[in-house]
Amino acid sequence: MNFEEELTKGNFTIPECLSCKKIIWPPAEFCNVCYNETGLKTGQFTGKIIEYSKQNEEYFCMVEFLDSFRLMAKTNDKPEIGKIVKITKCGILNGNYFFQII
């Protein structure tokens, strides 16, 4: 099981070292600290909006997860800095990762 396969299925997972438990972002098969293999954590992860911008009628947010990594996600609702959100939709489109939050 790898990150991109799960993302293609619409599943958001977080790579974690099987040995030292470090969150690995960007996703990789091996830990950049202890060089052991990584596995994928599953669950309903929440993140915090730390900044956002708007283009036309769409909002794009920088969301921080597990005080460890950040990713860009789209939302249809007006975001609030500090708001706790979760990923509702994700995948790969035209070779690019996409994430949507609520």
Number of contiguous helices: 1
Report the span from N to C terminus.
Answer: 27 Å
CATH fold field value of the largest domain: OB fold (Dihydrolipoamide Acetyltransferase, E2P)
> How large, in whole angstroms, is the Cα Rg?
14 Å
Task: Describe the protein in words.
- With 102 residues, the protein is mainly beta.
- The protein has 2 domains: 1-43, no CATH class; 45-102, OB fold (Dihydrolipoamide Acetyltransferase, E2P) (Beta Barrel), CATH 2.40.50.
- The chain is 6% helix and 48% strand.
- The protein contains 1 helix and 7 strands.
- The protein has one helix spanning 3-8; strands spanning 14-17, 38-41, 46-55, 58-65, 69-75, 84-93, 96-101.
- The strands form 2 sheets. It has a 5-stranded antiparallel sheet with strand order 5-4-3-6-7. A two-stranded antiparallel ribbon has the order 1-2.
- A hairpin with a 2-residue loop joins strand 6 and strand 7 (96-101).
- The two termini are 27 Å apart.
- The model has no long low-confidence stretch (mean pLDDT 95).
In short:
The chain is mostly beta strands and 102 residues long.
List keywords for this structure.
102 residues; mainly beta; OB fold (Dihydrolipoamide Acetyltransferase, E2P); two-stranded antiparallel ribbon; 48% strand; NA-bd_OB-fold; DUF35 domain-containing protein
Task: Spell out the blueprint of helices and strands.
Layout: H1 3-8, E1 14-17, E2 38-41, E3 46-55, E4 58-65, E5 69-75, E6 84-93, E7 96-101
Antiparallel strand pairs: 1-2, 3-4, 3-6, 4-5, 6-7
Organism: Candidatus Nitrosomarinus catalinensis
InterPro entries: NA-bd_OB-fold (IPR012340)
Protein name: DUF35 domain-containing protein
